[in-house]
Design a protein that fits this description.
Blueprint lengths: L5 E3 L2 E3 L3 E3 L15 H12 L4 E8 L19 H12 L4 E7 L7 H4 L15 H21 L3 E6 L4 H6 L14 H18 L5 E9 L9 H13 L4 E6 L6 H4 L6 H5 L7 H13 L9 H11 L4 E3 L6 H10 L5 E3 L1 H5 L3 H6 L13 H7 L14
Parallel strand pairs: 3-4, 3-10, 4-5, 5-6, 6-7, 7-8, 8-9
Antiparallel strand pairs: 1-2
The chain binds flavin mononucleotide.
The site of flavin mononucleotide has 26 residues, from strand 4, helix 13 and helix 15.
Length: 385
C-alpha cells in the first residue's frame, strides 16, 4: 500500500510518502533562494518522496517567522521558486508550496514592528489589514502558479495567523472575524476564495489544520477541529493534513519526542534557570513520541471528509506501523518531517526493502536550530556551542 499511487486534486503521487513542510533557515536575509535550498528539494525528490511540501513560505513581509525564511510576497521571488519546482520535476517528483503568515509568531526583529494577530493589545488587525493579508495569499498563489508548483497548502496550523483566527484562545473579537465558529472561520474561507481564483484545475489545494492547539485555555480541540474539517470539505479542498501544537506555546506537542533541555538552558537567564528546568522536565513526560500521534484526531475527521485525502503528520518512524495505518484508513498518506532531515533518502531505502525504522531519534535539536537561526539539519550529535 505504501508504494501505491494516489491522486490528490489533479495531481498523481507515485507513493504515499509526503515530505511535510520543514523550515530550513537556508534563504538569504532578503528571503530569497539559495543553492542550498535547491539542493534540499532535489535530494528529497531523488529520495523518491511522493509529494514534497515546501517550507512555510511567507506571503507577506510582516508575516515572517524568522530571518532566513523563504518568502513569496514579491514577483521578484518567482524565478527562485521556479528553480525549486524544476529541481523536483527533474526527478519526477511533485511539489506543493506551503503558504503562510506567522501572525503573532512573526519575529519582531525581522519584521521591524509588533506582530499582528486577531486580538492583541498592541496590534489587533483592522479590516484593512485583514483584507491586505487575504490579498497577499491570493497573490502568493498566483506566484506559485507562475513558478509551476503542483499545488499549494495553506498553513492553518501551529499557532500562526490563520490558526489564531480559528482558535478561541487567540481570537477574542466580536466583529465579523470572531465571536462564533462561523466568524472565526471567515478568514480561512476568504483566503480559500482568493487562492481558488488563482489556481488552475491541475493544481491541488491542501490545508494543514491543528486538531489540538494545546494552549493554556481552550483553543482548537478535536471536536472543534472536526467542525472546521467539515467546512473545509464543503469548500472542496483536495486534501487535509492534521497536526497539533503551536510553534511558540506548545512546540513539544507539535514535535513530540525528547526536549533538549541542556540546549535550551543555555539561553535561559541565570535567575530563571531552576524554574525553567523543572518546567521542561515535567513537560518532557507529556511529550513522548507515539507512532502517528495525530491519527486518532484525524480518524475523528474521517466521517466528515468523505473521499477527500486525509493525512496525519507526526511520529511516523516504523514501516509496519505506517503500512497498518494506511490499510486501516487512519491516514491516506505518511507525512514525514524530522526523519527526512536526517535521512532524505529514507523513502528510497524503504522501497529497496531496507526496512529498518527511520534513524531519527526525535531529539528535537533540529527544532531548536530553527529557532536559533541555524541551518536546519540533523544535530543529533549536538548543536554548535
Ligand atoms: C525543523 C522543523 C521545521 C518545521 N517547519 C515547518 C513548516 O515550515 N511548516 C509546517 O507546517 N510545519 C513545520 N514543522 C512541523 C512538521 O511539518 C511536522 O508537523 C512535525 O515535525 C511532526 O512530524 P515528524 O514527527 O515527522 O517530524 C517543522 C518541524 C521541524 C522539526
Amino acid at each position: 500500500m505504501l508504494f501505491s499511487p494516489l491522486t490528490i486534486g489533479g495531481v498523481e503521487i507515485k507513493n504515499r510518502f509526503v515530505a511535510s513542510a520543514c523550515e530550513d533557515n537556508l534563504a538569504t536575509e532578503d528571503a530569497l533562494l539559495t543553492d542550498a535550498i535547491v539542493r534540499k528539494y532535489h535530494r528529497l525528490a531523488k529520495g523518491q518522496v511522493g509529494l514534497i511540501i515546501s517550507s512555510h513560505l511567507s506571503v507577506h513581509p510582516w508575516g515572517r517567522t524568522r530571518k532566513y525564511q523563504l518568502g513569496i510576497w514579491s514577483d521578484s521571488m518567482i524565478p527562485g521558486q521556479r528553480k525549486i519546482v524544476e529541481s523536483v520535476h527533474k526527478e519526477s517528483g511533485k511539489i506543493v508550496f506551503q503558504l503562510g503568515h506567522a501572525g503573532l509568531s512573526a519575529s519582531r526583529d525581522v519584521i521591524g514592528r509588533s506582530p499582528m494577530g486577531p486580538s492583541t493589545d498592541e496590534s489587533p488587525m483592522g479590516d484593512d489589514s485583514i483584507a491586505e493579508v487575504i490579498n497577499a495569499f491570493g497573490k502568493a498563489a498566483e506566484r506559485a502558479v507562475e513558478a509551476g508548483a503542483d499545488g499549494i497548502q495553506l498553513h492553518a496550523a501551529h499557532g500562526y495567523l490563520i490558526n489564531e483566527f480559528l482558535s478561541p484562545f487567540f481570537n477574542h473579537r466580536d466583529d465579523a472575524w470572531g465571536g462564533s465558529e462561523e466568524n472565526r472561520f471567515r478568514l480561512l474561507r476568504e483566503i480559500m476564495a482568493a487562492v481558488k481564483k488563482a489556481l488552475p484545475e491541475r493544481m491541488a489545494l491542501l490545508v494543514k489544520l491543528n486538531a489540538h492547539d494545546f494552549t493554556k485555555q481552550e483553543g482548537i480541540t478535536p471536536g472543534l477541529a472536526v467542525n472546521y474539517a467539515k467546512r473545509l470539505a464543503e469548500l472542496e479542498i483536495d486534501g487535509l493534513e492534521v497536526s497539533c501544537g503551536t510553534s511558540s506555546l506548545s512546540p513539544w506537542k507539535m514535535c513530540r519526542g525528547d526536549i533538549p533541555v541542556q540546549e535550551i538552558m543555555k539561553h535561559v537567564p541565570e535567575s530563571r534557570k531552576l524554574k525553567v528546568q523543572q518546567l521542561l522536565e515535567k513537560m518532557r513526560e507529556n511529550c513522548t513520541l507515539e507512532e502517528g500521534y495525530n491519527v486518532e484526531a484525524a480518524s475523528m475527521m474521517r466521517p466528515v471528509m468523505g473521499r477527500i485525502p486525509l493525512f496525519a503528520v507526526g511520529g511516523w518512524r516504523n514501516l509496519p506501523a505506517m503500512e497498518q495505518a494506511i490499510v486501516e484508513g487512519g491516514t491516506d498518506l505518511i507525512p514525514l518531517c524530522r526523519p527526512l532531515i536526517r535521512e532524505p533518502s529514507l523513502v528510497r531505502r524503504f522501497g529497496e526493502g531496507k526496512t529498518k525504522s527511520a534513524s531519527c531519534t526525535s531529539c528535537n535539536r533540529c527544532l531548536i536550530a530553527v529557532g536559533s537561526n541555524l541551518p536546519v539539519r540533523c544535530y543529533y550529535r549536538g548543536l554548535p556551542a
